[in-house]
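User: I'm writing a short report section on ligand binding and want a predicted complex to refer to. Could you take this sequence and cobalamin and write out the structure as tokens? A short remark afterwards would be nice.
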Amino acid sequence: MEITEIHYRMLQEETRRLGGDLFGVADLTQTPIVTYDLDEDLLEKLPFGVSIGVRLADAVLEGIEDHPTLLYLHHYRQANYILDRIAFHLAALIQRAGGNAIPIAASQIVNWEQQRGHLSHKELAQAAGLGWRGRNNLLVNPAYGARIRLVSILTDLPMQVDKPVGNSCDTCRRCIAVCPAGAIKDDVEEFDQLGCFEKLKEFRNKYNVGQYICGVCIKACQPQGQGSALTFNQGIMKQPDLST
Ligand code: B12
Ligand code: SF4
Ligand code: SF4
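Assistant: Sure. The structure tokens for the complex follow:
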């Protein structure tokens, strides 16, 4: 087995052990991503992007009608906590294997005015083959829809890489009708970011959640009805064989 495959499997296995559901690696020299407030040459030094996803609990999302719930608030926080923990451990593992790694926080904002993180986990996840850009402007995975949260690690540890794949929402439009801000359009390029943000500001105070969260377009986006998309296996880790 090549060393690049050994590294890939080592990190994938650790992700599974720590509670991750999705794993993929992007070659950022082939699919460059935009960064913010990081060294300009960072991606040259750390050209591999590891993308990890955790699946949200369907039963928690089912409780959301047209606004965020306190159950969802707690669940969202725990998902961020688990993701940051996985990213921290993987960075340590990479360092022990002789590489360098920077875990990028699941939900840290580095510019509040522009509402920006250091990089877009969605963009990196797409480059790492975890899914496609949905009409809801979220990363949509063929097995779990948008009912996932993401984290990223930048590293120089040589690794086998995954390829971005071109699935699409096809004829599905479930999220358009339910968005309380009317922000989701047929064409994702017309997604109304500001309209969404204004609605989340309203929710933050009105429902005592203290965070810019919503959950409505996540709930709407599950794989049923996406037909053949389910036959793909993007980023989804096989369950361990417990039969022996
Ligand atoms: C700030 C922020 C917000 C702001 C938005 C500000 C903004 N301009 O993006 C607000 C508060 C409005 C917000 C709302 C929500 N957010 Co938010 N948010 C973030 C955060 C912390 C930073 C985003 C950022 O830096 N944006 C800057 C711009 C440049 O990047 P971008 O919007 O991600 O993507 C742009 C480009 O990258 C480009 N693009 C290029 N390639 C690709 C590929 C894909 C797949 C996509 C989707 C886009 C894309 O298109 C985009 C528009 O220009 C990220 C975490 C992170 N670091 O990624 C979470 C994150 C994007 N949020 C997330 C979620 C789930 C939500 C909400 C559903 C709220 C909730 N939790 O209930 C809504 C969804 C709104 C929607 N439908 O898009 C998840 C998305 C998971 C997923 N399945 O995709 C993230 C990744 C957090 C996480 N750790 O999982 N969010
Ligand atoms: S987070 Fe809420 S307001 Fe924003 S696009 Fe999704 S459903 Fe609409
Ligand atoms: S709910 Fe349907 S249309 Fe909306 S993002 Fe998900 S798959 Fe695409």
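A remark for your report: Residues 3-231 form one domain. The chain has one domain: 3-231.
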